[in-house]
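Weekly modeling sync, notes
Attendees: S.R. (lead), two postdocs, one rotation student

Agenda item 3: backlog of single-chain predictions. S.R. asked that every request posted to the team notebook include the full sequence so nobody has to chase files. The rotation student volunteered to paste the first one in as an example of the format we agreed on. Action items at the bottom.

Example entry:
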Amino acid sequence: MKRLFVVSAVLTFMLVSCTSSKKDGNVGEVDSLTPTNTEVVDMHNAENALDIVGIYKGTLPCADCEGIETTVELNADNSYKVTTLYLTEKKGDKEFVENGVWEIKVNTITLKNSAQDGQPNTRFFAGENTLTQLDIEGKKIEGPLAEHYVLKK
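Predicted structure, as returned to the notebook:
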């Protein structure tokens, strides 16, 4: 008698656990197994995927000199320091230093100059161990010199 009770209890449990729930009269629709049409947001961007903080160096193109030796130092406290040296034949040329704060949105780093001298903010595209200088409108520079606007970590 006990055996019959245990067997019928196990069969009842199995039968109940294997049935699907009904939703709006649709037979066979199971809530937990039905895929939903939710949009997946790609949270992969430079802000959370790359190690932005560091020192980047390179020589940027110059219209009337051999180039502009540039060093961009991005600090963890969102401060920055940019040091530029125009490469000319004159001896004794001095370095120019700019300080301020930086912010990142999507993959664009904006350097906000603390001097407030009317100069537009400088922008860079953040890549893996690189910063690529963008034009005044925040777009990638194109043309034969485009590859020379990249600073490397």
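Discussion: group reviewed the output briefly. The chain has two helices and eight strands.
Action items: rotation student to repeat for the remaining queue; S.R. to check formatting next week.
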